Backbone:
RNA sequence: CGGGAUGUGGCGCAGUCCGGUAGCGCGCUUCGUUCGGGACGAAGAGGCCCCCGGUUCGAAUCCGGGCAUCCCGACCA
């Protein structure tokens, strides 16, 4: 490709509203342009890179038995109504009417379509296991797109769906994806860690998220370097510091003026926060049958911990949780700031599993300015649910090995779910097993966002001058910069490289050297050839890796083979990172 | 959905407080000079100042109402 003909332009200044480095560089280098919030055009350089990323995905999916299909972006709403997600999902789903007034859906994912295909195509256990995938546009009307391609509303996703006759088969395909996903990320030059994650509204029994660790990430992860435990904070467990065993003392009400927070209370009584019980008031939306009802949730954790809303929502099987209003708190007989599970009515009481082990806590008295001493679970009150509802944080003890964990932020670049039969049950996607019995097909679903992965590549591989793209996914392998006016050596090299199958971006523009070098650094192709009179005098041209300062002079006759050798070398460097990763639950 | 900010040629910004019909840098076009890390000179092109309404002799500027974009939070199948 001649740069004089390249559709996109580079920009000296990043748009004022770009904050993260991947966004700035991808815009400046001419990869992407924004149309609206979370909606982008992908210009030729991005398109070529995404095609390469997609081809890596195809190779890895095909290698584990995947068959590529293309499913529609526009769905009739019927199948979404059948699985209930038409009703469950809110404004994030794109809905419209066709000309006949029928409800239509813009695809946010494809479980429904897959299950519909399965009920039409799969009749027999002989057709299983199977796995289909596609690389297709998704629309999710996210309330808050951000950070360039990190979080968008319209995006391309590689999503695959495993279909099995039994749970062992699902486990096998799940594990195959587990490794294939690491291969994809490594081949794209993005280091990823797999963490256990919440299954959320997807349902199912197991899920992993692949995270690229970066401060700009939106998820918080708990990591243990000692034993390798990793988990999204939403579900991360930890060993809770145990309380000293004591005999239960008599309940006693005392005046504690102006102690609305746990810190105030602990200071006032001169006790550690671990000797107090913290009350958190939430309202949960819980589906009962076909109805959504709101229930007041009174959550109790020890004063030295905080509530994890995801764990709490899972403990009460809530679809949504929100903080309770003061009036609602008073209505159940509690008092904001002085809440106690003793004597409240019409509330679902959920206590953290550390509470029954912790005797003689100080808890509110449901009366402003008063607390109870020596509150004991079981004797003084009982809960509807006892579960782990506390959030893990920096320094908390690893649930596996007990060593301190630390937190990190991460961007979710992929996820894998064991779905089970939720969708196949709903759509009646069944097969006949060996015994002639009808059974639902068991599904898994697996997704990677292509654009988000590109953003993470840019986030990971750059310097102050621009992008430094991995050879495996760079739009072109070589940036050929011509500085010489007299010689036509560059034209010849361009022709020779193309004839040899090397992908070249040829800067044939009539510009100054500085502009060309800066553009080359900004776009970040892995190799740069500089054709200038300086090296031509010595009978050669310069060859330089973008990720290195040093260049070497290669004789004109050897440049093609030298480039091919460098490409092989850089490809080998990437492939060294593609290794088997032990499966961790 | 809460909180904050911004909207002025393709990009980055000034002008808005204090009203008088728009300016700078980059980029773009033409000519000349230059040519190894974002050159120089000369001459040009390009703007419904986000939209609608109001105040005023007169609005980019003041007032009201929208919309859009970004950031923080809530949310995220």
Residues:
């Amino acid at each position: 490709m001649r740069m004089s003909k390249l559709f996109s332009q580079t920009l000296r200044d990043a748009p004022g509203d770009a904050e993260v480095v991947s966004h700035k560089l991808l815009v400046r280098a001419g990869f992407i342009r924004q149309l609206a919030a979370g909606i982008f055009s992908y210009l030729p350089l991005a398109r070529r890179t995404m095609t390469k990323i997609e081809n890596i995905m195809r190779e890895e999916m095909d290698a584990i038995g995947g068959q590529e299909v293309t499913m529609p972006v526009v769905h009739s709403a019927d199948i979404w109504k059948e699985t209930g997600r038409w009703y469950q999902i809110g404004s994030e789903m794109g809905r419209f009417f066709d000309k006949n007034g029928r409800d239509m859906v813009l695809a946010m994912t494809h479980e429904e379509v897959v299950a519909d295909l399965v009920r039409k195509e799969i009749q027999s256990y002989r057709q299983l296991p199977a796995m289909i995938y596609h690389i297709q546009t998704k629309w999710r009307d996210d309330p808050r797109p951000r950070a360039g391609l990190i979080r968008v509303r319209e995006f391309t996703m590689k999503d695959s769906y495993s279909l099995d006759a039994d749970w062992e088969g699902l486990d096998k395909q799940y594990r195959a994806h587990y490794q294939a996903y690491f291969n994809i990320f490594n081949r794209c030059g993005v280091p990823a860690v797999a963490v256990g994650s919440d299954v959320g509204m997807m349902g199912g029994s197991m899920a992993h998220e692949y995270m690229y660790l970066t401060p700009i990430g939106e998820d918080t992860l708990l990591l243990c370097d000692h034993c390798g435990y990793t988990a999204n904070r939403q579900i991360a467990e930890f060993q809770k510091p145990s309380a000293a065993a004591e005999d239960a003392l008599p309940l006693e009400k005392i005046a504690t003026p102006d102690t609305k927070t746990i810190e105030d209370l602990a200071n006032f009584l001169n006790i550690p926060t671990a000797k107090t019980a913290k009350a958190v008031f939430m309202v949960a939306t819980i589906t009962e049958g076909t109805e959504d009802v709101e229930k007041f949730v009174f959550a109790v954790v020890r004063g030295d911990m905080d509530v994890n809303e995801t764990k709490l929502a899972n403990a009460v099987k809530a679809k949504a949780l929100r903080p309770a209003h003061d009036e609602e708190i008073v209505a159940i007989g509690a008092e904001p700031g002085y809440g106690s599970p003793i004597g409240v009515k019409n509330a679902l009481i959920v206590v953290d599993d550390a509470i029954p082990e912790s005797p003689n806590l100080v808890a509110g008295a449901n009366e402003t300015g008063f607390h109870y001493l020596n509150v004991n679970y079981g004797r003084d009150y009982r809960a509807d649910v006892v579960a782990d509802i506390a959030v893990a944080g920096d320094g908390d003890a690893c649930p596996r090995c007990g060593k301190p964990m630390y937190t990190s932020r991460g961007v979710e670049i992929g996820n894998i779910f064991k779905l089970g039969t939720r969708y196949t049950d709903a759509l009646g996607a069944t097969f006949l097993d060996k015994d002639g019995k009808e059974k639902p097909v068991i599904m898994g679903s697996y997704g990677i966002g292509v654009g988000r992965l590109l953003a993470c590549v840019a986030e990971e591989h750059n310097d102050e001058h621009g992008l430094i793209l991995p050879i495996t996914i760079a739009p072109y392998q070589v940036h050929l910069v011509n500085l010489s006016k007299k010689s036509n050596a560059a034209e010849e090299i361009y022709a020779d490289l193309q004839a040899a199958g090397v992908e070249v971006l040829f800067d044939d523009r009539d510009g100054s050297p500085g502009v060309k070098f800066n553009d080359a650094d900004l776009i970040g192709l892995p190799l740069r050839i500089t054709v200038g009179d300086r090296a031509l005098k010595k009978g050669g041209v310069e060859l330089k890796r973008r990720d290195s300062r040093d260049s070497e002079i290669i004789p004109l006759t050897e440049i093609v083979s030298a480039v091919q050798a460098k490409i092989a070398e850089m490809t080998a460097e990437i492939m060294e990172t593609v290794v088997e990763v032990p499966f961790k639950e």
